[in-house]
Design brief:
The chain is mainly beta and 287 residues long. The chain has helices at residues 32-35, 112-117, 266-277, and strands spanning 4-8, 14-16, 20-27, 38-49, 58-64, 67-75, 78-82, 87-90, 95-99, 104-110, 119-129, 140-144, 151-154, 157-163, 165-166, 169-170, 179-186, 191-195, 201-208, 210-213, 216-219, 222-226, 232-237, 241-248, 256-258, 261-263. The chain has a single domain, classed as Jelly Rolls (Sandwich). It contains 3 helices and 26 strands. The strands form 6 sheets. It has a 7-stranded antiparallel sheet, with no helix packed on it. The longest helix is centred in the C-terminal third of the chain and has 12 residues, at 266-277. The protein is globular and about 55 Å long. It starts with a strand and ends in a 10-residue tail after the last helix. The protein binds manganese (II) ion.
């Protein structure tokens, strides 16, 4: 079995624009070898927004290059729009897997409907690195709606397989490198064994509730980082719990990032800034 090597948590939160109250539970500014192929984990909410009648809350135009953003909406709705004419709404239970690749400029706001109604909001945005050979791939989206995500029923738990493979059930998302991403709900008192690949970076994020893994207590907004060695994990739910299981084959390449750009060298970061500032990412159409 894998063992718990580290617990990630954040003692502070910050706002991304005015729509996302975020705790960054890990980021590539930290120990990149521990988290590869993952780069950043932002937990937005839980939060309750009051209704607004004007411009929805969110974050305006910004670029990304060199990786993928995975947005998992639990409560609320997020609408996005980009410079290539793409756009859509990510509803409760839906996942957007965006390949920024060579470069994209987009905005992320609460949907007009959710903005008017207000209510509970909870979202995760996970950044997944791309291998050097794919960093400049054309930008793309996978709009994965809740009905496209298969569920595996376990003893006292249910796992939605967003990416990868759980007991022969294939996830909905295509990935560039081997990644598992499972949205798991456990009933209080349940204890489940999950197969996790040996050799994969493996992490269990607790979004709600409280679990015990390898004898270690893991509470809300904490991530248990597991050993690379070992081929499974036992999760015991002390309460009704919602966890996100992430595993990935490490990408053994340098990580050099600055804000929304994550590349392999300082030179590539300078090029990204030059390309963005000179309009080579393109431009968004007026709203
Ligand atoms: Mn973004």
């Amino acid at each position: 079995m894998k063992t718990v090597e580290k617990i990630f948590r954040s003692d502070s939160s910050h706002w991304v624009g005015d729509g996302f109250p975020v705790r960054s539970l890990f980021s590539y500014n930290g120990d990149t070898q521990v988290i590869s192929p993952f780069l950043l984990f932002d937990y937005a909410g839980p939060w309750t927004f009051e209704p607004v009648s004007g411009q929805p809350r969110g974050v305006g135009q910004h670029p990304h290059r060199g990786f993928e953003t995975v947005t998992i909406v639990y409560d609320g709705e997020v609408s996005h729009r980009d410079n290539a004419g793409g756009g859509g709404t990510i509803g409760s239970g839906d996942v957007q897997w965006m390949t920024a690749g060579a470069g994209i400029i987009h905005e992320e706001f609460h949907s007009p409907g959710y903005s008017r109604s207000g209510g509970p909001f909870r979202m995760v945005q996970l950044w997944v690195n791309l291998p050097a050979k794919d960093k400049m791939t054309p930008p793309a989206y996978q709009a994965i709606t809740r009905d496209m995500i298969p569920e595996v029923v376990l003893n006292g738990a249910r796992a939605r397989v967003i990416a990868g493979d759980l007991e022969g059930t294939r996830g909905a998302a295509r990935t560039f490198t081997p990644v598992n991403l499972w949205d798991v709900r456990l009933d209080a008192g349940a204890s489940i064994a999950l197969p996790l690949p040996a050799g994969h970076t493996s992490m269990i994020a607790v979004l709600a509730g409280h679990v015990t893994i390898d004898g270690k207590a893991v509470g809300e907004a904490e991530i248990a980082s597991l050993s690379i060695d070992g081929d499974g994990v036992q999760i015991a739910a002390d309460r009704d719990s919602m966890v996100l299981v992430m595993t990935g084959e490490p990408i053994d390449e340098p990580v050099v990032g600055y804000g929304p750009f994550v590349m392999n060298s300082e030179d590539e970061i300078r090029t990204a800034f030059n390309d963005f500032n000179s309009g080579r990412f393109g431009a968004m159409a007026p709203a």
